Amino acid sequence: NVRWVFSPNVTDEPRTDANRMELYYPGHDYVDVLALDGYNWGSTRPHIGWRSFEEVFARGYARVAALGPQPVWIAEVASAEQGGSKARWVREMLSSTRFDRLEAIVWFNEDKEADWRIESSPASLAAFRDWFAWRAAQGGAEADEPRAAGR
Asked: To 5 degrees, how large is the angle CA 70–CA 76–CA 80?
């Protein structure tokens, strides 16, 4: 089966009125899932700074959720290590209850502009492992082992 996903960035880039996500949403007939991409760049981009998971997604979530009744996913998310505690950021992301229609989170697991990988530090890896162990003990949240794209 195929699900069509509308997934803009949490911010309109470039930031112009003509580039607002609402203007290029194709409509309910074409979209099965509403989604967002967003990152905590930490101090890797000084003009942005460290932002919590909820700070990264609050405005974009409200905007994308207003587009329709479809489920909402975070189709791309990650946090840098620099500028704060990535492990704490991950724990806050995985325990957030603010976004009531959120059904899925997809972690961007690459060492690219920043080291976004789950295993970028022992503390980050432990935060993910601890949460999945807790969820498994509660009878939920299954996940495959992380693997490289295309495998």
From this structure: 145
Question: Is the distance from CB of 36 to CB of 64 less than 8 angstroms?
Answer: yes
CB-CB neighbours of 94 under 10 Å: 17
Residue 149 lies in a domain: no
Q: Which of 75, 80, 148 is nearest to 112 (CA)?
A: 80
> What span, in angstroms and rounded, lies between the C-alpha atoms of 80 and 113?
9
Which structural domain, as residue segments, surrounds residue 115? 5-137
What angle (nearest 5°) sits at the alpha carbon of residue 116, between those of residues 110 and 119?
90
Place of tokens 């069509």: 4
Per residue in 105-138, pLDDT (tens digit) is 999 999 999 999 999 999 999 999 998 888 888 8
Residue 25: CATH number of its domain: 3.20.20.80
pLDDT surpassing 70 at residue 148:
no
The 10s digit of each residue's pLDDT in 21-65 is 999 999 999 999 999 999 999 999 878 899 999 999 999 999 999
